[in-house]
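name: query_chain
kind: protein
chains: 1
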Amino acid sequence: MGLREAVYSLYERRLRRHLDGLPVPRHVAIMIDGNRRWARAAGFDDVSHGHVAGAQHIVNLLEWCGEAGVGHVTIWLLSTDNLRRPAEELEPLLRIIAGVAEELSAPRNPWQVKAVGALDLLPQDTAEALKAAEERTADRRGLTVNVAVGYGGRREIADAVRSLLTEHAESGGTIEELAERLDVDHIAEHLYTRGQPDPDLVIRTSGEQRLSGFLLWQSVHSEFYFCDALWPDFRKIDFLRALRDYGTRQRRFGS
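structure:
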C-alpha cells in the first residue's frame, strides 16, 4: 500500500469513528452530476465515456449505502429535460441506462430495483429494460434502489394528481367529493415513490447547488449536501462526509 492509500485508509477509519452513534438516513437521494465535465476533463471528445464511468460507479455507492445501513436510495439518471438532447448524445445514454438496470438486477446483487419516472416518455426498449429489472428483483429484500429515468418533479406531481383523479372517477365519485376530502396524503399515495419514506438526505455532486426539480414533493424536509467532486470522482470518504454532516445536523422539519 502506497502512502496516499495509507492516508486515505486512515482518514476513512477516522470518519467511520465519527459516525458512531450518529443517526443514519433511511433514504438517500443522489443527483449524480458531472459525467460530461469529467469526460471532457479526461480528454474524451465523446462525453458518453463519462456516462459509462458514472454508471460503473453506481454499484460502489450502493455498497457504501448498504454498509452504512441506508434502506432506500434514489439515483437520478435522466430528467425529462434530458430527453430533448440531440439523438447522438441521448441514444448512447439510454443504452448505458439499460445496462445499469441489467447490472443492478443481476442475480449476484441483493437490491430491489424500482423504476421512478414517466416511462411512457422513454423509448420502448429502455422502458422494457427498466420494467424487467423491477420484475427480476421484486422479491428481493435488500436495499431498495429507485432508478429515476425520464424523471421530473413537476411531471411526477402532475402524474400523481392525474392518477388520483382517474382512480376517483373509476370509483364513481364526483369532483366535489374529491375536493372535500383531498389532502397531501392522497397525493403522496400516487407519487412514483409511494410506500417509501421521503429522502432524509439529498446529495448533489459536481458543485452545483440547486435541486433542478428533483423530488420536489418528497424533499420538503430533506437535508441537502453539495459536493464539488464530479460524480465519477465521488469517493467513499465524500459519502462518509455527507453522512457525518447529516448526522450532526439538528433537523427541524420546517420549524
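note: Strands lie at 27-31, 72-79, 112-116, 144-151, 201-204, 223-226.
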